[in-house]
Design goal:
Radius of gyration: 20 Å
Mean pLDDT: 82
Strand order of the largest sheet: 3-2-1-4-5-7-6
Strand content: 15-25%
Order of helices and strands: HHHEHEEEHEHEE
Number of helices: 6
Distance between the termini: 71 Å
Low-confidence stretches: 31-40
Structural class: alpha/beta
Shape: globular
Largest sheet: 7 strands, mixed
């Protein structure tokens, strides 16, 4: 019997797909290696893996640093910063924890509860279902990245933002949401273009309602 014919019936991955899979698994192995090393930083971007089912896409190191530094400057000395669905900005802020500011993370993904009391469970479907100790207008700036590019998601997240902020807003969302962002939050698009660790199909932009360093 000639078994070569049977091999033709087995689906074969293209060389491009195989290379992409190998790269993905190599990245995973490298990250796991970092986690088990003595120098592991629990606040490093990627220490908690992206969950694409939750529409999670982490910023690049450069973008996260830029947004974190902008938030620190905008909040001022002793300022309070809230990160709404923006965990990679929170992580970058925590890497600079020696500076004079405080920060909390509002996030649906309970894996981030490893950050202790600074973690606040947040579901944008219930925008004002927040702990009693989270007082209205108690944050100098709110950094937010709504998980979905929909008017409903932005509108509900906007309720949370307006409840928390004393005034300043730094919003990151798709370029296609510019009109809705202006409508719900009175923010304007910045020249700075945020980048993600993985390339996304949708162009992302930053929006603010104050004189920022992102232009």
């Amino acid at each position: 019997m000639d078994y070569d014919d049977d091999d033709d019936d087995i689906p074969q991955l293209s060389s491009h797909t195989l290379a992409a899979l190998q790269e993905f698994y190599l990245e995973q192995q490298q990250r796991e290696g970092m986690k088990t090393s003595q120098g592991f930083n629990q606040y490093s971007i990627g220490s908690i893996e992206e969950d694409w089912q939750l529409s999670q896409f982490w910023y690049s190191e450069e973008t996260a640093s830029c947004l974190a530094n902008e938030a620190i400057v905008a909040a001022g000395k002793g300022g309070r910063i809230a990160c709404v669905s923006a965990p990679s900005v929170y992580q970058k802020l925590k890497e600079q924890d020696g500076k004079d500011f405080s920060v909390c993370i509002l996030e649906y993904d309970r894996r981030f509860s490893v950050y202790g009391e600074e973690f606040i469970f947040y579901d944008y479907n219930h925008p004002l279902n927040l702990p009693e100790n989270l007082l209205p207008h108690s944050f100098d700036i709110v950094v937010a990245d709504p998980p979905y590019l929909s008017d409903e998601c932005l509108q509900k997240t906007a309720e949370t933002i307006k409840y928390l902020t004393k005034g300043k807003i730094l919003l990151c969302t798709g370029a296609i949401m510019e009109e809705q962002a202006a409508k719900h939050l009175g923010v304007k698009i910045c020249k700075f273009i945020p980048k993600h660790s993985r390339n996304l199909a949708n162009e992302f932009r930053c929006y603010v309602n104050y004189a920022s360093g992102l232009d």
